[in-house]
Amino acid sequence: SAVISQKPSRDICQRGTSLTIQCQVDSQVTMMFWYRQQPGQSLTLIATANQGSEATYESGFVIDKFPISRPNLTFSTLTVSNMSPEDSSIYLCSVVTYTLNTEAFFGQGTRLTVV
Amino acid sequence: RKEVEQDPGPFNVPEGATVAFNCTYSNSASQSFFWYRQDCRKEPKLLMSVYSSGNEDGRFTAQLNRASQYISLLIRDSKLSDSATYLCVVRGNNDMRFGAGTRLTVKP
């Protein structure tokens, strides 16, 4: 299994500012993902964080709005840029390994409120 | 069409009832399948993996039909503590896709 530390656990931010969320894993994993979960909704994949290269973004998400870094196998950051109230959501880091049938492990999530 | 589709419910059932959740996926190359449980204000956690031969874990039975691209979860003798949202999850080579989740409430 993998233990994930995600910080901050929550934040209240002013519109127009940016917030960087950190995800630290206790072991080397090969795939890291960032999800968003809006109130009452399921998880939506934002992007796959790739080590040492640009993240792979899903339709509807762009690098300028959600820049992602992954400098090594155990750490990644997601920045929510130029925030608006519509960005209020829970953001979740998730990791899996290349081994098939291995489940995804999740960080505790970051509850973001933009005012 | 969504890649993973679930009936969102909600399902409201009495204690002891049997309840079934269904899920379909669109990518025939998907490789692994899971059911996750998410409690309110918590992150999703693995309930069980789903294998081609079907698998059972206590009161929970999961089945996979690759030909129909269909996954199911059966909960027998439901408990109050089973109340949660159940997420169907499909893994490809490089991603994990979640269904919208089915909300279950078990009532006394």
Description:
The complex is a heterodimer of chains A (115) and B (108). The mean pLDDT of chain A is 91. Chain A is mainly beta. In chain A, a hairpin with a 2-residue loop joins strand 7 (68-72) and strand 8. Helices cover 0% and strands 50% of the residues of chain A. In chain A, strands 2, 4, 5, 6, 9, 10 and 11 form a seven-stranded mixed sheet that branches. Chain B has 108 residues and is an all-beta fold. Helices cover 0% and strands 55% of the residues of chain B. In chain B, strands 2, 4, 5, 9, 10 and 11 form a six-stranded mixed sheet that branches. In chain B, strands 1-3-8-7-6 form a five-stranded antiparallel sheet, with no helix packed on it. Chain B is globular. The chains are: A mainly beta (115), B mainly beta (108). Chain A binds chain B through residues 31, 33, 35, 41-45, 48, 56, 92, 94, 96, 100-104, 106-109, and chain B through 31-32, 34, 36, 43-46, 49, 87, 89, 91, 94-101.
Quick summary of this structure?
The complex is a heterodimer of chains A (115) and B (108). Chain A is 0% helix and 50% strand.
Radius of gyration of chain A: 13 Å
Estimated helix fraction of chain B: under 10%
Oligomer: heterodimer
Proportion of residues in β-strands of chain A:
over 45%
Helical content band of chain A: under 10%
What is the general shape of chain A? globular
Beta-sheet strand percentage of chain B?
A: over 45%
Instruction: Note the main sheet of chain B.
Output: 6 strands, mixed
Determine the mean pLDDT of chain A: 91
Contiguous helical run count of chain A: 0
Count of separate DSSP helical elements of chain B: 0
Mean pLDDT of chain B: 92
Q: Largest sheet of chain A, if any?
A: 7 strands, mixed
What is the succession of H and E elements of chain B?
A: EEEEEEEEEEE
Shape of chain B: globular
End-to-end Cα distance of chain A, whole Å, is 37 Å
Task: List low-pLDDT spans of chain B.
Answer: none
Structural class category of chain A = mainly beta
Number of strands of chain B: 11
Largest interface: A-B, 22 and 20 residues
The low-pLDDT segments of chain A are: none
